[in-house]
Amino acid sequence: MAAVMPDHLHDAHHGPTGLMRWITTTNHKDIGTMYLIFSFIMFLSGGVMALTIRAELFQPGLQVVQPEFFNQLTTMHGLVMVFGAIMPAFVGFANWQIPLMIGASDMAFARMNNWSFWLLPVAAVLLIGSFFVPGGATAAGWTLYAPLSVQMGMGMDMAIFAIHIMGVSSIMGAINIVVTILNMRAPGMTMMKMPLFCWTWLITAYLLIAVMPVLAGAVTMVLTDRHFGTSFFSAAGGGDPVMYQHIFWFFGHPEVYIMILPAFGIVSQIIPTFARKPLFGYASMVYATSSIAILSFSVWAHHMFTTGMPAVGQLFFMYATMLIAVPTGVKVFNWIATMWRGSLTFETPMLWAVGFIFVFTMGGFTGLICAIAPIDIQVQDTYYVVAHFHYVLVAGSLFALFAGAYYWLPKWTGHMPDERIGKLHFWCSIVFFNITFFPMHFLGLAGMPRRIPDYALQFADFNMMASIGAFGFGLSQLIFLVAVVKCVRGGEKAAARSWEGAEGLEWTVPSPAPHHTFEEAPVFK
Amino acid sequence: MTHTFDKYFVPEPSTYPIFGSLALLLFGGGAAMWLNGVAAGPWLFFLGIAVLVYMLFGWFGQVVRESEGGKYGKKVDRSFRWSMGWFIFSEVMFFAAFFGALFYARVLSVPWLATGDTAELLWQGFAGGWPTAGPDKPDPFTPMEAWGIPAINTLILLTSGATLTWAHHSLVKEKRGQLKLGLLITILLGLLFLSLQIYEYRHAYAELNLRLDTGIYGSTFYLLTGFHGLHVTVGAIMLTVMLFRALAGHFRPDSHFGFEAAAWYWHFVDVVWLMLFVVVYLL
Amino acid sequence: QSRYNLQSPVTGVAAQIYDMHTLMLLICLVIFIAVFGVMFWAVFKHRKSQGAVAANFHENTSVEIAWTVIPVFILLGMAWPATKTVLEMKDTRDPDITIKATGYQWKWGYDYLQGEGQGIRLVSNLSTPRTQMDGQAAKGEHYLIEVDKPVVVPVGKKIRVLTTASDVIHSWWVPAFGVKQDAIPGFIRDAWFRADKEGIYRGNCAELCGRDHGYMPIEVHVVSPQAYSQWVAEQQAAMAAAAGDSTREWALAELVERGEKVFAANCVACHQADGKGLPPAFPPLDGAAIVRGDPKAQIDVVLKGRPGTPMAAFGALLSDADIAAVITYTRNTWSNKTGEAIQPSQIAAAKGN
Ligand code: HEA
Ligand code: HEA
Ligand code: CUA
Ligand SMILES: [Cu+2]
Asked: pTM for the whole thing?
């Protein structure tokens, strides 16, 4: 095929059409779109699993699923949401926006970019397919703690290979992003003039390259313990089950910042636009993001306070974890200072962004409470932790993704999203979100463990409330689907600068952004 | 705009990536089946590898053609440099996980198993110490001696690093003959290293009773040296490709990043070995 | 018992945790109100629709330093009490009684290692009947947090708990004591508590440990020293009687009858009451070759377990009589009709080599 292809690519018409266009494309916008669609499908799949969990937990007793399958659902819900929904969604944003924001013609490695994406459906097939093999999917929790994960059936092996493949995809994607940002900025765009979204992604990509290989190593050791007789996680052979946790969380904690830093970036783009005022404290934002990333490598064992570390270990990890509140606080304060004495309007993206700050901070505070080792002894592995991380992951990462989607939809589709639908989506989401997850704090404090299909009677009413909220929250997400489909189909034409206060190179190209942009680098002032 | 802009090369649509994905699907699915005794497993697994090899040859072949066709400007060259650097960093982190496991076992968990209540209540009579196959009545084994083949292998790899640098200098000075000779020697040294390593493994299994399932010592020993060996293999393949390219007249003194990338990789593999030699064999 | 907050503490450490949590909550609440007070002020007052015109400031070094430094001090204030509690929790020296808690899939075994009651051994199983879970019977007050044999400890004494596990990681957790300690296979970890109030305190296994992770509760009875001594005497008498069981010769019917109970307490979760199991993870016993063939192989599996699967090693968990009984039961029920009686002495012999 290479032979018949003309070298100059101005003409999209010469490329393959139909399905082949999407399979072979090297265009960052096409690839970004595929990432976004893929991640939304994964979000719905993970959501259906969550709803099944909530249906089982609606009342005490076993009604909907059996315990073994329940554990599979919990595990797969976590894996699918983390690796299938949230991470690819942010990569989708990176694909669409980074070249537009820094004035690059495409990603640095356009062909590898395609591969990064197309590895994901493959991993999803392995992961979700594992439900259908004998023994079912892995049921060891998304953390895949050994030696429980050593006990699992074939589904565990499929999950391990899926994780390897997703790791390859993430590493290639991250390298692509780093190189694009470092090497392809338009003349005049110095690092400290770069939009904050690009900064947060640069640092996220660095985290990805640093920790995905470590996860690969951890699951490889599980694989060899399972099948080749090694004893990494077996005391009888001189290993240690807790060693798995150290390696996993060395990946796992940076991983949660991988899922939040780009969200910080999105919010840092949106707030100034709708405050019509430049971002407050740009430089301190950059330093805060870097500090979070650096600190994130020295806090991992706050997930392991109950494993019985020596006191010095507990204290070290407690202090280091608490420190992260400082740079995160700087970010929150900067956003609010940006809004202060601005000229605020609350179109849908801004609503989501403000909602994000509000609810994410609650999740941050519960994180801080978890960081206090003695308190964590009580709440570890309870619904308090489940509440904490859904506040930061759903109200944090997911809300920021919605904010970003509404913000850039005009650039992607050429139409303004419907404000009425978008706002409805926001209000339903934030109300049902809190109905679902707020009671989980109480459940956890009162002593309900996580990852259980059935519970003691005193937890009944809050669980019922959470389940009702969850179904409401799930249904609310269908509104998003409507909003997007409507926006793609038509609606008010979007101007190049779609929002009054929007700044940055992406708003200098027409809406929808043409297939190829910035083939001649713009000069950034 | 008046200044002429060095246009960044964006490749045309390509089918290689989807073949790559398919390959990994077959590879991963096949491996999972194989490990669980499904008959089709090995077939799918090897099919996956075959597709992967096809894809890699096709893809890199195209990259080489594009490069020799002069499509890559300065900027693309810089991208390649950055990306190779970051790729090697990711590899470093992969090895770090296994080095970390070795460190954790030696310094923390094995001593824990041999002291205090853990030893008294669960593993009476376990003395700890390194090397160990753990407290649960392991078969006796002999640990790997550093000053035999491993030391020779260290010399071999160090020498190969030197010959590769020699080849590189020759490339820059346009001494093509020395370039080819240097590459060839490097590759042969790599193969020699691998042969000795295989010999060492056989010796370990046959005479030392040191196996993959020899507790934590066997686990860390084989996974660290095994993954290193795998990387030597990949590096040797990369250098072989470079040799063929050199024979085909590729590379110019000012533009030969393919060669450099392979060299960086080879040096990285070298450094990993040095650390292995110290941590796994010597200490 | 609050439904909104940590359970009422009955140990000094738990009380410290409780207060610390209250303090943290208040601090966070104050910060929250202050920060979002400012934000909502801006949201309402600095709206375009209110005629607000955007200012143009975008940095202010002194403000930025202030909101970096002040949080550091707040955090120091939080870290101080936490540090003290951590050090206290870790101080497991000089206990009055030491109990080893061993996690099994899915039950807890307890060995009293030191202090009054030394030598007592008991296995604690969930006692909620299956019918309550399936909704065929009304759920009792202590649904899922009740056990057949609780741990008993005297009030006011320092109890050191050693945790370990035989298969996967479990976690021994009693909220009212402020104790949660993972039980790690192959390692011993410890924690301690000194309960100030008599009563029954309930907890759960707090680490995902496989299918019945939700069904391995912990029940601790804190009793007066007199009641404790009495309980110890009872246990010791029962253990002496059980020792006799393991040496005498049993009749087949006797073994089957006892075996049925042992099966119901230990095996039914996986192998199911009808012996059909839940393949492939949990193989059937009904018609299984190993159950019908040479008893040596079956005894071996029951004693040592199957590493890498949930099949536990029961050798240390059940008495020889119980093991003999349950094996005899499986060999003489459902469609298995070997007619063999496996004697406790055979188990003892198998253990010997
Ligand atoms: C997006 C993901 C995300 C983010 C951003 C965070 C952020 C934080 N997390 Fe969270 N966490 C998770 C995802 C995340 N977490 C997940 C998934 C788990 C569970 C994994 C599992 O077990 O399955 C988890 C679990 C978890 C634990 C282990 C709990 C347990 O299992 O026992 C702990 C303990 O320390 C913790 C702490 C923190 C802290 C201190 C932060 C901090 O970064 C928060 C900082 C933010 C703020 C503090 C708010 C804003 C600050 C101010 C307004 C300034 C002023 C404030 C003060 C001075 C107090 N997290
Ligand atoms: C990364 C992001 C992420 C996201 C977005 C979510 C989203 C949700 N999660 Fe969470 N969750 C995790 C990450 C995430 N989760 C992780 C990491 C764990 C830990 C796993 C472990 O313990 O190993 C976990 C665990 C977890 C638990 C604990 C399970 C247990 O311990 O046993 C629960 C329980 O309520 C839960 C609920 C939910 C709900 C209700 C949503 C909702 O927000 C989902 C909403 C979405 C939908 C519902 C889909 C959209 C709608 C449709 C498809 C239409 C159909 C709808 C209707 C018919 C109503 N999650
Ligand atoms: Cu045992 Cu959970
Ligand atoms: Cu963390």
From this structure: 0.93
Contact present, C178 and B106 (Cβ < 8 Å) = no
Rounded-to-integer distance, Cα A93 and Cα A140, Å: 31
Return the CA Rg of chain A. Answer: 23
* A to B CB pairs, distance under 8 Å: 240
Is there a contact between C164 and B113 if contact means CB atoms under 8 Å apart?
A: no
Number of structural domains (chain B) is: 2
Range of the structural domain that residue B120 is part of: 73-282
Give the Å distances, CA to CA, from C295 to A254, A496, C66, C277, C300. 53, 81, 76, 20, 8
Do B110 and B62 share a domain, yes or no? no
Which tokens hold the place of A13?
Answer: 């018409």
Pocket test for ligand 1, best of A258, A298, A328 (most atoms within 8 A of CB): A328
Inter-chain contact B28–A162, Cβ cutoff 8 Å?
Answer: yes
Cis amide linkage into residue B131, ω under 30° from 0: yes
The interface predicted TM-score of the complex, written ipTM, equals 0.93
- Find, in chain B, the residue whose alpha carbon is nearest to that of A17: B13
B94 & B32 share domain: no
Q: Does A41 touch chain C (CB under 8 A)?
A: no
B148/B247 same-domain check: yes
- Boundary-marking domain end, from B71, B98, B130: B71
A139 and A71 Cβ atoms separated by less than 8 Å = yes
Interface residue A231 vs chain C (CB under 8 A): no
Check residues B234 and C258 and name the one with the higher pLDDT. B234
CB atoms within 10 A of CB C287: 12
Looking at residue A190, the DSSP 8-state letter turns out to be -
pLDDT of residue B10: 87
Same domain membership, residue B47 and residue B100? no
Residue C138 DSSP SS3: coil
Please write down the long-range contacts of A192-195, taking CB distance under 8 Å and 24 or more positions apart: A192/A282, A192/A283, A192/A286, A193/A524, A194/A101, A194/A102, A195/A101, A195/A102, A195/A265, A195/A269, A195/A504
**Domain shared by B118 and B256, yes or no:** yes
- Taking the C-alpha atoms of residue A152 and residue A139, their distance in angstroms, rounded to an integer, is 7
| Residue B122 forms contact with C (CB below 8 Å) | yes
Q: What does each C-alpha distance from C124 to A457, C210, C223, C261, C265 come to in angstroms?
A: 21, 18, 18, 14, 10
Distance CA A432, CA A439 (A): 12
Tell me the mean pLDDT per 10 residues along chain A, length 525: 40 69 94 97 97 96 93 97 97 97 94 97 96 93 95 94 97 97 94 96 97 97 96 94 97 97 97 96 96 96 96 96 96 96 96 97 97 96 97 97 97 96 97 97 96 95 97 97 95 93 93 90 81
Looking at chain B, list the stretches that DSSP marks H as alpha helix, in order from N- to C-terminal side: 16-35, 41-68, 74-103, 110-113, 116-117, 149-172, 176-203, 215-247, 257-276
Instruction: Please judge whether C187 and B118 are an interchain contact, meaning their C-beta atoms are less than 8 angstroms apart.
Output: yes
pLDDT digits (tens, 9 = 90+) for B14-68: 999 999 999 999 999 999 999 999 999 999 999 999 999 999 999 999 999 998 8
Do residues B147 and B255 share a domain?
yes
Give how far B146 is from chain C: nearest CA, Å. 31
Residue numbers of chain C with a pLDDT score lower than 70: 308, 353
What are the residue numbers of the active site of A?
Answer: 77, 106, 142, 169-170, 253, 255, 257, 268, 302-303, 328, 331, 450
Angle of helix B215-247 relative to helix B176-203, nearest 10 degrees, comes to 160
Residue pair A506/A98 in contact by the 8 Å Cβ criterion: no
Report the pLDDT value the prediction gives residue A14, as an integer from 0 to 100.
58
Q: What is the pLDDT of residue C353?
A: 54
**Same domain as B77, residue B6:** no
Residue listed under structure tokens 């430049």: A278
Residues A233, A241 contacting (CB under 8 angstroms): yes
pLDDT for A320 equals 97
